[in-house]
UniProtKB/TrEMBL annotation:
The keyword Transmembrane applies. This is TolC family protein. Residues 1-22 form the signal peptide. It comes from Algivirga pacifica. Belongs to the outer membrane factor (OMF) (TC 1.B.17) family. It is found in: Cell outer membrane. SUPFAM superfamilies: Outer membrane efflux proteins (OEP).
């Protein structure tokens, strides 16, 4: 007897602690908003989105001119020996006006220094490269749009996780309420039987059976509380907050307004994030093919520069030289043959495009199957939830009538306990059915790209 009292007391203390710590209530919209702000996976995808935005510029595509500034200075000090020819020696050289005497002179300079300074500003611009830079820019913009779709896809995944874990908490919270209610009824039955036993109206066995039932119900309360706390941690991870944060949630499951199969299928074809991402990937590969084909075209570029150069030398006939001015020109380069590397790149790009197109075709077929199955699952799950609601109503009516007859002594404790257990299981089945129907609805809306809306 003392054993059962201790268990009941422990359970009561745990429930009191739980109730005190779960006064704050978190709505589904608040949970979604928190996750969209704090979820770390979403933040990681947002970084990739920002990188793609930074890359999608005409400068990265090579459509803008490049400007470079170069400059330098050099000093040298050397021992120099120079031999040069000059007129007036014994050697003679045949010339147009007669023989000219030539002599070799040698000059030795120790510690001859020379200084050279230069500076140049140069502008380079590609005039034509087979439109490779143009297609590169289109590819960068396409990659940006692809990352936008991937970000939306991650947002949908995050929202789907929030809804799934939120209603998992809701289900566990509802199951805990049912377990507490069941235990309270059993506790009243134990008290009633003890009073009857004191007046000799029932035997000791009836009291012991009721106390065993109370112990069972107390255990179920602890199990329900454990499930509730664990489901809270799962939700907190998705919300990006401290895992042991405790709060209550709405136990009422709210479904989307009436959906139609035609609307779902139409949105899947036009708005499914995975399908859109794959379509964009095909377009990216097509642009890769065009970029590779541009390698077969000639490349024409123009340049212009403004430079200054100054030279001073101790060991030269020209001891000082300075130049400053402009220069401009046009370059043409055409790779006529490089081991068929360009052709190989073009061929591989076409094969990659073909592979992505095949994946797109497969995805379209698979989405039709998944959509049909998701719609069937959604319809049946809602029908099951509706049937379970009817089952709870009947279980409640049966329990109330059994309770009245039990209090009048017309049914046994076993029959009363059976009616009580039937009600508890019916309520748990209803909670689970509503949760399953909601998750099925979320999966359907995510497939159709309607979850965020």
């Amino acid at each position: 007897m003392k054993k059962y009292k201790n268990i009941s007391l422990l359970c009561g203390l745990l429930l009191a602690t739980f109730t005190a710590s779960a006064q704050d209530k978190l709505s589904l919209q608040e949970a979604i908003s928190t996750a969209l702000s704090n979820n770390y996976q979403l933040k990681a995808v947002a970084v990739n989105k920002e990188i793609a935005e930074n890359n999608a510029t005409v400068g990265n595509a090579g459509l803008l001119p490049s400007v470079s500034l170069n400059g330098g200075g050099e000093y040298s000090n050397n021992n120099t020996e120079i031999e040069f020819l000059s007129a007036g020696g014994n050697n003679q050289q045949q010339g147009g006006g007669g023989d000219v005497p030539i002599e070799a002179n040698r000059l030795e300079i120790d510690g001859a220094s020379s200084i050279n300074y230069n500076a140049r500003v140069q502008v380079d611009y590609t005039l034509f490269d087979g439109f490779g830079n143009y297609y590169t820019f289109k590819k960068l913009k396409q990659n940006k749009e692809l990352e936008d779709v991937k970000y939306r896809q991650q947002m949908e995944n995050t929202v789907a996780q929030v809804v799934q874990f939120y209603y998992a908490v809701s289900r566990q919270q509802r199951n805990l309420q049912v377990a507490k209610s069941t235990m309270a009824i059993t506790r009243d039955r134990v008290k009633r039987l003890k009073d009857q036993y004191a007046y000799g109206q029932v035997n000791k066995l009836a009291v012991l059976n009721a106390e065993v039932d109370l112990n069972t119900d107390s255990t179920k309360v602890l199990e329900a509380e454990q499930g509730y706390e664990m489901s809270l941690r799962d939700l907190n991870v998705v919300l990006g907050q401290e895992v042991n944060t405790v709060y209550a949630v709405d136990t009422e499951v709210v479904y989307q307004e009436e959906l139609s199969a035609e609307e779902i299928m139409s949105n899947i074809r036009s708005n499914n994030a995975s399908l859109q991402a794959q379509q964009m990937q095909v377009e990216v590969n097509q642009l890769d093919t065009r970029i590779a084909q541009a390698g077969k075209a000639p490349r024409v570029s123009a340049y212009g520069s403004y430079g200054w150069n100054q030279m001073e030398s101790d060991a030269s006939q020209v001891t000082y030289n300075q130049s400053i001015g402009y220069s401009a020109g046009v370059r043409l380069s055409w790779n006529l043959f490089n081991g068929n590397q360009v052709s190989t790149r073009v061929q591989n790009a076409k094969l990659a495009t073909e592979a992505q197109q095949n994946q797109l075709n497969q995805m379209q077929i698979d989405l039709e199957r998944r959509a049909a199955n998701a719609w069937t699952d959604y319809e049946y799950k809602k029908r099951i939830a509706s049937m379970e609601e009817t089952g709870v109503e009947r279980a409640k009516l049966n329990f109330e009538q059994t309770k009245e007859r039990y209090e009048l002594g017309q049914v046994t404790s076993v029959e009363f306990r059976t009616a009580q257990e039937n009600l508890r299981m019916a309520e748990n089945r209803l909670s689970n059915a509503r949760y399953a129907a909601k998750i099925s609805e979320v999966n359907l809306l995510q497939l159709a790209g309607m979850l965020i809306n």
